Every structure is written in structure tokens, then in C-alpha cells.
Automatic annotation (TrEMBL):
InterPro entries: Olfac-like_dom, Olfactomedin-like_domain. It holds the Pfam family OLF. Residues 1-19 form the signal peptide. GO terms for biological process: signal transduction. Disulfide bonds join 133-315. It comes from the Eukaryota. It is found in: Secreted. Keywords: Coiled coil, Developmental protein, Disulfide bond, Glycoprotein, Secreted, Signal. Residues 17-98 form a coiled coil. Belongs to the OLFML3 family. The gene is Olfml3. This is OLFL3 protein. Residues 132-388 form the Olfactomedin-like domain. PROSITE patterns: OLF. It comes from Brachypteracias leptosomus (short-legged ground-roller).
């Protein structure tokens, strides 16, 4: 090819190159525009997402703040409710100690008949002693009149089996309130009851045959038949109760018509002194189980009810105190020993010093070997002189 032909092709080649460059530039511009559009869309979406995230965060923070406030309010309400519940529990506990809920006491006729039958099977049998106590009363060593308190009839005593110094006072022959003095000093020095605690019993008591023994109060309730109620003095609740399995009971003492059952304690444990129409002339005796209140054994004694004013048990021997309706000296005139160690004719005839009227109650303390007596409204202590039964 000649030189002139090459010169003719150069402009054509230049035009082709410019066309290709133009197309490349147009392609690059289109790609850049698309990329810019996508970047713009991404920016818009990112901005929208950031706004939504910020709004959601603010919403969540508001909800958390509201929840925290509600939690604080609920915590305050819970604390207030806990305080009210605690106060209510204390009030309920206080009310229960003042007025304990009476238990449901149902009389099982078959069980009562079984108890009566079991006790009658062992009736008048010789008693097997639980201790080696062989003492009996020889005389009244001393007498101390403490004060005059309450009505003419009543009962005062200490715990016959414990070491407590508390004095328990039953004023009258029918009530539901027991006065408790912390010590003998408070009972002696103060005539009013302001120094005494008060125990309101769930059932009213009758008579003056009650007993405080080993932290429990054994008292008599009458609801048709007579019941022995075992009352815990510590928590102020009824532990147990038992219908006394004796039919047609009558007052046990001729001079104390208000007492149908006398619960007594000695070195051997718990006893019940009573009387029935079956043998209305004489006094009956029964050995009680202090835990279950079951009657373990029964005896018909030769001690008459007529002119009897009180009775107590010492070393397994029943001592009945007699008087006359006219002012005179009280005396132990009948002694019945369940073990048969002491014959009635060998017992000492013990006289009590001159007193004001008639004893409405006499409670023997086996630990102190003295008697707490209520004599026409006067509270008297008799200190007893003891001797061995074989020496009498």
C-alpha cells in the first residue's frame, strides 16, 4: 500500500477511536448515575432506619422508666402490705392469747363407757405406789394468815409440781378469769389486782376443785356433765379435755355444795375426789393420768360426805377435813390410804387452828409440805408436821 493510502486511513481510524471513547464514557456515566442513585437510596433508608431506631430507643427508655416507677410503687405497696400483715398477725396472736379458740370437744359415749368399765374393773384394788413416799401428817406445825382477798369463797395455789413462784387465784365459785401474781410478795402487799396478770379461760369454771400442775391448769367445767379441762398456761390454749366418767355426780363435800370434783396432787401424781348418787353418803377417789386425763383406778372410801368441807391427798392417802355448820375447829377426821399401808385407826387426828369460817378450798403442795387454804375470804398457809406411816 502506498503512502497516500495510509494518510487516507488515519482520519478513519481516529473517528473510530473517538466513537469508542464516547461510548465508553457514556457507559461509565450511566454506571455512575446508577451507583449514585443506589447510594442516595441507601442514605435515605439509613437515615430512616436511624430515625426509627432512635424513636424505638426513646420509646423503650420511656417504657423502662414507667416500669421502674411501677416497680417502685409495687415494692412500696408490698412493704406496706407486709407491715399490715405483720401487725394483723400480732393482733391475732394477742387475741388468741386473750381468747384462745375453744377446741371441738365431742363426747364419745362408747369411749366413756369403756373408760368407766376399765376403771371399775380395778375399783377398790390395792394401789401400786410409784414413789417411796411413806409420810403422813402428824400435826399442823404453823399457821400464817396472809391477807383477805376477794369473796368469801375461792381458791389460791401455786404450781404443785413446778418451781414457779407464781400465785394463782380463783375468786368465787363460778367465773372465767384467773388472777396470776408473779410472787408471794406481790400477792401479800397489794390488796388490789393491779399487780396481777389476768388469764381469761375459754370455758367458765365451777367450784373450787381446780389445780395447777406442771405448767398446766386442770379445772372443772359443767356443761350438762362435768368435764376436766387441761389448759396450757404458757401458750394459753386448751390441751385436752375429758368428760368425767361418773354417773349422777353430787357435791363431794357436804359443807361445800359448789364443788363436784376436787382435782388434787401429791407425791404420786394427780387425783380426783368426787361423789355419786350410787354411794351418796361417802366420798370416792380416782387416780388420774395427767397426760391423757384417763382414770387409772377408782376407790370407794369410808369417808362420809356429811360435814366435810375439803380434802387433799398426801403420799397416796386421802385426808378429809370436817367441820360443823356452827363455828368450830376444822379437823382431819378420815384418812384413806390406797396402798393399805396406813390403817384408818392409826392415823393422827389433826386439828387446824381456830379460823374465821369454813374452808372453801385446801390445796396441798407436795414440794413445800404445806397447804394453801381459803377460809371465809382469808388466804391461809398451814405448814404440816410429817411422820413416817409406820411411826404413827
Amino acid at each position: 500500500m502506498g503512502p497516500w493510502r495510509c494518510l487516507l486511513l488515519l482520519p478513519l481510524l481516529a473517528m473510530g477511536l473517538r466513537a469508542q471513547q464516547q461510548q465508553l464514557m457514556e457507559y461509565v456515566e450511566r454506571r455512575l448515575r446508577l451507583l449514585e442513585e443506589r447510594i442516595s437510596q441507601w442514605h435515605d433508608q439509613s437515615s430512616r432506619y436511624s430515625t426509627e431506631l432512635r424513636d424505638f430507643k426513646n420509646q423503650v427508655l420511656g417504657m423502662l422508666e414507667a416500669a421502674e416507677k411501677e416497680r417502685e410503687a409495687m415494692r412500696s405497696e408490698a412493704e406496706s402490705a407486709a407491715v399490715r400483715v405483720d401487725r394483723l398477725e400480732r393482733e391475732v396472736d394477742y387475741l388468741e392469747t386473750q381468747n384462745p379458740a375453744p377446741p371441738c370437744v365431742e363426747v364419745d359415749e362408747m369411749l366413756m363407757e369403756k373408760q368407766v368399765a376399765t376403771a371399775k374393773q380395778r375399783k377398790n384394788e390395792k394401789y401400786t405406789k410409784l414413789t417411796d413416799c411413806s409420810d403422813t401428817i402428824s400435826s399442823v406445825r404453823a399457821m400464817k394468815i396472809l391477807k383477805r382477798f376477794g369473796s368469801t369463797l375461792g381458791l389460791w395455789t401455786k404450781d404443785a409440781a413446778g418451781n414457779s413462784e407464781k400465785i394463782y387465784v380463783f375468786d368465787g365459785t363460778a367465773n372465767d378469769m384467773v388472777y396470776v401474781f408473779p410472787r408471794m410478795r406481790e400477792f401479800t402487799l397489794f390488796s388490789a389486782t393491779r399487780k396481777a396478770a389476768r388469764i381469761k379461760l375459754p370455758y367458765p369454771w365451777v367450784g373450787t376443785g381446780h389445780l395447777v400442775y406442771d405448767g398446766h391448769l386442770y379445772y372443772i367445767r359443767q356443761q350438762g356433765s362435768f368435764q376436766v379441762i387441761k389448759f396450757n398456761l404458757a401458750n394459753k390454749t386448751v390441751v385436752d379435755s375429758s368428760v368425767f366418767p361418773a354417773e349422777e355426780q353430787i357435791p363431794v363435800f357436804g359443807l361445800s355444795p359448789f364443788t363436784y370434783i376436787e382435782v388434787a396432787a401429791d407425791e404420786e401424781g394427780l387425783w380426783a375426789i368426787y361423789a355419786t348418787k350410787e354411794d351418796e353418803k361417802n366420798i370416792c377417789l380416782a387416780k388420774l393420768d395427767p397426760t391423757s386425763l384417763d382414770i387409772e383406778q377408782m376407790w370407794d372410801t369410808p369417808c362420809p360426805r356429811e360435814n366435810a368441807e375439803a380434802a387433799f391427798v398426801v403420799c397416796g392417802a386421802l385426808h378429809v377435813v370436817y367441820n360443823t355448820r356452827l363455828p368450830s375447829r376444822s379437823r382431819i377426821q378420815c384418812v384413806f390410804d390406797v396402798s393399805g399401808t396406813l390403817a384408818p385407826e392409826d392415823a393422827s387426828l389433826v386439828y387446824f387452828p381456830k379460823r374465821y369460817g369454813s374452808h372453801s378450798s385446801m390445796k396441798y403442795s407436795p414440794q413445800e409440805r404445806q397447804i394453801y387454804a381459803w377460809d371465809d375470804g382469808y388466804q391461809v398457809i398451814y405448814r404440816m408436821e410429817m411422820k413416817k406411816k409406820l411411826e404413827v
